Amino acid sequence: MASSPYFSLAVLFLAALGFGLTPLGLAWLWGKVFSPAKPNAIKNAIYECGLESKGDAWMQFRSAYYLYAIIFLILTWKPCFCLPFAVAFTGLGVAACLAMLVFVLMLIEGLAWAWAKGVLTWA
Predict the structure, then answer these.
(1) For 23-55, how does the pLDDT look when each residue is reduced to its tens digit (9 = 90+)?
(2) Arithmetic mean of pLDDT over the chain
(3) DSSP 121
(4) SS3 55
(5) With CB atoms 3.0 to 4.6 Å apart as the test, which of 57, 75, 85, 96 could cross-link to 92 if both were Cys?
(6) How far apart are the C-alpha atoms of 42 and 52, rounded to whole Å?
(7) Rounded CA gap, 13 and 19, in Å?
(8) What is the mean pLDDT of residues 86-103?
């Protein structure tokens, strides 16, 4: 059985499965052993911040929040791409520098667009 090319893959798969399921099983076992089961009307009620739900769950919200999220992603992911470039700058060629220049210019363009649209102003 050890001569099969898929044996090591199967062992790693089972190890990964066990690594993920073992904490879940231990937490379930801990809950069964140490947590008393005392069901009642209050415990089984729908829970939402301790308050009764009122109205429909579907509600309108400002679509500008999507723009805030996009700007947040732009400004937080920029260092993830710029830092490795800065670390390896001396060993890179002209093509890598041009690619990073295009990337930074696209970020600046997105920031200028957001500024022109008024996304960066809080009302």
Answers:
(1) 999 999 998 888 877 778 777 676 656 666 666
(2) 82
(3) -
(4) coil
(5) 96
(6) 12
(7) 10
(8) 88
Residue 70 near residue 111 (C-beta atoms within 8 A): no
The HSE-up count of residue 4 (CA atoms within 13 Å, CB side) is 8
- What is the rounded CA–CA span in Å between residue 95 and residue 101? 10
The one-character DSSP state at 91 is G
Phi, psi angle pair for 3, to nearest 5°: -85, -10
Q: Which pLDDT value is given to residue 29?
A: 93
Whether residue 104 contacts residue 82, with contact meaning beta carbons closer than 8 Å, is answered with yes
CB 119 within 8 A of CB 64: yes
Q: Which amino acid is at 43?
A: K
C-beta separation of 121 from 71 below 8 A: no
Torsion of CA 83, 86, 88, 93, to 10 degrees: 130
Q: Among 105, 54, 118, 50, which Cα is nearest to 78's?
A: 105
Q: Residue 21 to residues 8, 29, 80, 118: CA-CA distances in angstroms?
A: 20, 12, 32, 48
Tokens (6 digits) for 54:
């009122």
Q: Give the whole-number percent of the chain exceeding pLDDT 90.
A: 20
